[in-house]
Amino acid sequence: MDSEYGAPGGLFRRLKQACAAEWRAYTWHPFVQGIADGTLPLTAFKRYLVQDYLFLVQFVRAQALAAYKAESLDAFREKSGAIGALLHEMTLHVGYCAEWGLSEQAVLNEPEAAETVAYTRWVLDRGMAGDILDLEVALAPCTVGYGEIALMIEASPTRSRDDNPYESWIAMYAGAEYQALARGAAARLDALGESHGGAARFASLSADFAKAARLEAEFWQMGLRG
Description:
Number of helices: 11
Strand content: under 5%
Helix content: over 70%
Low-confidence stretches: none
Largest sheet: none
Number of strands: 0
Structural class: mainly alpha
């Protein structure tokens, strides 16, 4: 499978190239490397799982905002579908947390980490202050990044499959369903770049893309401190 997302010369690839250092620090963070080789401490992963669920609550809000700011009826329909998919993912997340001994109520009783608040509220702020392109640029590192991370893990020479406690997590994001979602998000960003003046706004968009990548890396680091 092609590991590149978005079209050659499209906005997504241009943003990723302009923010190569931040992107690499996010997508191949020590947390990710620990998932790949199975050495990530279980306490770190549990911390991440709890905060990721709380993150998803806010991510649904961001997708709802994207539906409100959608540039067309077709885009509105697409975003409505994305909200439904996220709510379904949250249901699956609850089941996954249960496998790790974490009930939904226990997760909801946990306070949001500072990194969770910083990331999610920044995304919502970009959506409120800007247009649909600003919001989609803020969202893309999460949506597309997880797809790329899974493929990087699968291709890594340190990849461990035997008794890796994170095998199901890797499989979920490397699977065809999520990969299609990630590629669709990159393609949508490319299309919005064409329709909403991405070239003229590239400096500000790349700054936002880089910040989102840094916030993602900080989210992994929060897990490591678990």
